[in-house]
Amino acid sequence: PTVTYIDPDGTKHEVEVAPGKRVMQAAIAAGIDGIVAECGGQAMCATCHVYVEGPWAEKFPPVSEEEDEMLDDTVSPRTDASRLSCQLVVTDEVDGLIVRLPEDQV
Ligand code: FES
């Protein structure tokens, strides 16, 4: 599946991601600066915050209680589209996924 990460300034990074990888892992592997992921994917840092675009948002499992708590601690404002990218597993179902990167992670 293809995932497109969009920087706050509109720059797009299109990345081919193997199914089963996390949206966060794929960004780190691709050298995308907008995701920091300090805790390494344990839903404990909120520095992997992304905004998931419209039609894809509902294709992911809902926000867990743990994720919900961390999303209250994001540096950039939380919106209805906010997710922790370490909690998002890429599958064929989300091919074409677009996530926007927040202004700041730390
Ligand atoms: Fe830390 Fe996602 S990498 S919460």
UniProtKB/TrEMBL annotation:
Coiled coil: none annotated. Residues 1-105 form the 2Fe-2S ferredoxin-type domain. InterPro entries: 2Fe-2S_ferredoxin-like_sf, 2Fe-2S_ferredoxin-type, Adrenodoxin-like, Adrenodoxin_Fe-S_BS, Beta-grasp_dom_sf. It holds the Pfam family Fer2. Keywords: 2Fe-2S, Iron, Iron-sulfur, Metal-binding. PROSITE patterns: 2FE2S_FER_2, ADX. Its cofactor is [2Fe-2S] cluster. Belongs to the adrenodoxin/putidaredoxin family. This is 2Fe-2S iron-sulfur cluster-binding protein. The lineage of its organism: Bacteria, Bacillati, Actinomycetota, Actinomycetes, Mycobacteriales.
